[in-house]
Write a structure and sequence with these properties.
alpha/beta, 264 residues, binds NADP nicotinamide-adenine-dinucleotide phosphate, Rossmann fold, single chain, 46% helix
Length: 264
C-alpha cells in the first residue's frame, strides 16, 4: 500500500486515531499535513511521523473556524503542491440529554466539530482532489448507523449526518473520479473521554464496560482503524466509493450497550 509521492491531510492528528493514521501514512511514504489545536501533541506526532517517513507539515488549526479550514487546504497546496487524500477525522464526544440546560450550545459545538468542519473542508479540498483523482475518508462511528448508547444524541446525530454526507458527496464526485468513504469504528481506546473531562475512574469503568459488552471481548487500538483508512484510501480500494466500513469488535450487534452517565 505505497503512498509514495501522495499528499495526505489528516485532521485531528494530534491524538488517537488521527495520530495513528498520520504515522501510518508517513510510514508508507506519504507527505502528510497534520492538523490539531494542541501544539505539544502535534510536535510529538510530528516526531513520530519523521521517525518512520518524511517530516509532516504541521498546521495548528481549530476545525470550527472557517479561516483555519482555509489555512489547512491552502497551506498544504502551497507546501506540497497538490492533495491526494483528505481524512476528516477531528471529532469530539459529548454527553447530552434533550432536557438538559444549554443543550443547544452543546449540540452546535458537536455539529460544528464533527460534521460542519468535514463539509467545509471537503468543499475546499474537492477541486484539488479532482485534479489528482484523489479520495476522502471520513471518520464516523457505529453510532451513525445505530443508536447504541443513551445520553449522547448530539454525537449520534453528527455521525449519522456524516454518513449521509459521505454518500451524497460520493455520488456527486464519482463522475470526476473522486472516491468518498467512511470508516465507522466501535470503541477505540483514545483520549476521547479524557478530553471530555471525564474522571479517570469513570473512564476506566467506561472502557471496562465496553470491553465486557463487546462480542470479541475487547476494544480496538487506533492503529487498527488507521490500517482500514489506509486500505480504503489506497489503490486497493479503487472501486470503493459511498461505502462505510464498520470495525467494532461486533459491538453493533449487541442489543443494548449501556446507559452511560459519565460524570465529568
Ligand atoms: N475513540 C472511539 O471510541 C471512537 C469511536 C468511533 C469514532 N471515533 C471518532 O474518531 C475520531 C477521532 O477520535 P479519537 O477517538 O482519536 O479521539 P481523540 O484522541 O480525543 O482525538 C480527537 C482529535 O480531534 C481533534 N479535534 C477535536 N476538536 C477539534 C477542533 N475544534 N479543531 C481541531 N481539531 C480538533 C483533537 O485535536 P486537538 O485537541 O489538538 O485540537 C484530536 O487530535 C473522532 O471523529 C471520533 O468521533 C472515535
Amino acid at each position: 500500500m505505497s503512498f509514495k509521492n501522495k499528499v495526505v491531510i489528516v485532521t485531528g492528528a494530534s491524538s488517537g486515531i488521527g495520530a495513528a493514521t498520520a504515522i501510518a501514512f508517513s510510514k508508507e511514504g506519504a507527505r502528510v499535513t497534520i492538523v490539531g489545536r494542541n501544539q505539544e501533541k502535534l510536535r510529538y506526532v510530528s516526531e513520530q511521523c519523521s521517525a518512520v517517513g518524511s517530516k509532516p507539515l504541521v498546521i495548528t488549526a481549530d476545525v470550527t473556524n472557517d479561516e483555519d479550514l482555509k489555512k489547512i487546504v491552502h497551506g498544504t497546496i502551497k507546501h506540497f503542491g497538490k492533495l491526494d487524500v483528505l481524512v476528516n477525522n477531528a471529532g469530539i464526544f459529548s454527553i447530552d440529554k434533550i432536557l438538559s440546560e444549554n443543550v443547544v450550545d452543546s449540540f452546535d459545538k458537536v455539529i460544528a466539530t464533527n460534521l460542519r468542519s468535514a463539509v467545509y473542508l471537503t468543499h475546499l479540498a474537492a477541486p484539488h482532489l479532482i485534479e489528482t483523482k484523489g479520495n476522502i475518508v471520513n471518520v464516523s462511528s457505529i453510532v451513525g448507523k445505530r443508536v447504541t448508547i443513551e445520553n449522547c444524541f448530539a454525537y449520534h446525530t453528527s455521525k449519522a449526518g456524516l454518513d449521509h454526507f459521505t454518500k451524497c458527496v460520493a455520488l456527486e464526485l464519482a463522475p470526476k473520479g473522486v472516491r468518498v468513504n467512511s470508516v465507522n469504528p466501535g470503541f477505540v481506546r483514545t483520549d476521547i473521554m479524557q478530553v471530555l473531562g471525564v474522571k479517570k475512574e469513570a473512564q476506566e469503568d467506561f472502557w471496562d464496560s465496553m470491553t465486557k459488552t463487546s462480542p470479541l471481548g475487547k476494544v480496538a487500538d487506533s492503529e487498527e482503524i488507521a490500517d482500514l483508512i489506509l486500505f480504503i484510501a489506497s489503490d486497493k480500494g479503487r472501486s470503493i466509493t459511498g461505502s462505510s466500513f464498520v470495525s467494532d469488535n461486533g459491538a453493533i450487534l449487541v442489543p443494548h450497550l449501556g446507559n452511560i452517565e459519565l460524570q465529568a
